């Protein structure tokens, strides 16, 4: 399709297919979520538990289908052969665009359990999608500035509590916990403002990763570290819909979880916190070097 239609026309078609897909699967998802909510009976909950995951994976498969129909993308993907659908993974990736999420879902769907994201509380109000994320039990986090926390000290630690409760639920069935360590999408302006020591990455925020590993580190088989590179430049979502993502490189590797760091008290032990941050920094230096090599590859 991309070969003989103008980009804006491809974009409109892709958008329509995206919306049709959303409005087909989300009502089914909400029906299951409401059935679970109305009858909080243990046996009924166990019976319905697999259905939201099945619906979400079918939804992602249909996304992949319209992407293949409307896109003419060269996918260069390596490192996904040894994954286990029945295991727990902490998934980490660099973050450049909203397109990253569709790339990750396309590559990982049914290879590992459904990706679960920690979302900003405000996103629950996104039309339709907010309800879908709620139905899939994605944790919603309230992010507060340091100034706000100084004025409202009772709110300090609420995000950590939300993370811990979510991880307790994730520990019950195989789950992939998705974490963008940078906390936001990479831009040159953010890179300069935050004075990042890396060339292609923002400074990583280790606190959320430390808390998740501390809460369920014995469950995670490994950290699935993924690097995404767009050789032709990072596409905006509209450029992606127009079929202008011609080439994407995805590299994955499994990293062992250092149990001595996962069990440590990140928030209360300064020495443990420094060791954890050093481990994350080393992982980030390796990713930065990998991106540099992939960008230079022919």
Task: Give a quick set of tags describing it.
globular, Glycerol-3-phosphate (1)-acyltransferase, 8 strands, two-stranded parallel ribbon, single chain, alpha/beta
**Number of distinct helices:** 12
Q: Looking at the structure, what is the overall shape?
A: globular
How many beta-strand runs? 8
Structural class: alpha/beta
Strand content is 5-15%
* Main sheet characteristics: 6 strands, mixed
Strand order of the largest sheet: 1-8-7-2-6-3
| CATH class category name | Alpha Beta
Query: What distance lies between the first and last C-alpha atoms, to the nearest angstrom?
Result: 26 Å
| Rg result | 20 Å
Write down the CATH topology: Glycerol-3-phosphate (1)-acyltransferase
**Secondary structure: helix percent:** 40-55%
Quote the average pLDDT.
Answer: 88
Summarize the helix and strand pattern as letters.
HHHEEHEEHEHHEHHEHEHH
CATH-scheme architecture? 3-Layer(aba) Sandwich
Contiguous low-pLDDT stretches (5 residues minimum) are: none
Q: What is the total domain count?
A: 1
């Amino acid at each position: 399709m991309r070969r003989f239609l103008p980009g804006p026309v491809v974009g409109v078609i892709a958008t329509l297919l995206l919306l049709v897909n959303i409005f087909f699967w989300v009502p089914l998802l909400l029906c299951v979520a409401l059935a679970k909510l109305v009858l909080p009976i243990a046996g009924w909950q166990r019976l319905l538990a697999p259905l939201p995951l099945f619906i979400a994976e079918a939804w992602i498969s249909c996304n992949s289908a319209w992407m293949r129909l409307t896109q003419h993308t060269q996918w260069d993907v390596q490192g996904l052969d040894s994954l286990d659908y029945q295991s727990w993974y902490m998934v980490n990736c660099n973050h450049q665009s909203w397109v990253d999420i569709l790339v990750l879902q396309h590559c990982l769907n049914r290879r590992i359990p459904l990706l679960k994201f920690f979302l900003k509380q405000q996103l629950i109000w996104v039309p339709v999608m907010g309800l879908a994320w709620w139905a899939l039990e994605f944790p919603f986090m309230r992010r507060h500035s340091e100034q706000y926390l100084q004025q409202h000290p009772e709110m300090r630690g609420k995000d950590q509590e939300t993370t811990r409760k979510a991880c307790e639920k994730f520990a019950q069935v195989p789950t992939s916990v998705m974490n963008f360590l940078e906390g936001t999408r990479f831009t040159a302006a953010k890179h300069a403002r935050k004075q990042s020591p890396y060339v292609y990455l923002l400074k990583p925020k280790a606190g959320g990763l430390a808390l998740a590993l501390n809460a369920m580190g014995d469950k995670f088989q490994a950290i699935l570290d993924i690097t995404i590179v767009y050789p032709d430049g990072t596409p905006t979502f509209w450029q992606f819909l127009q079929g202008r993502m011609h080439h994407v490189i995805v590299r994955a590797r499994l990293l062992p979880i250092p149990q001595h760091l996962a069990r440590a008290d990140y928030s209360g032990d300064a020495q443990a916190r420094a060791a954890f941050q050093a481990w994350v920094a080393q992982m980030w230096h390796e990713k930065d070097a990998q991106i540099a090599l992939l960008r230079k590859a022919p």
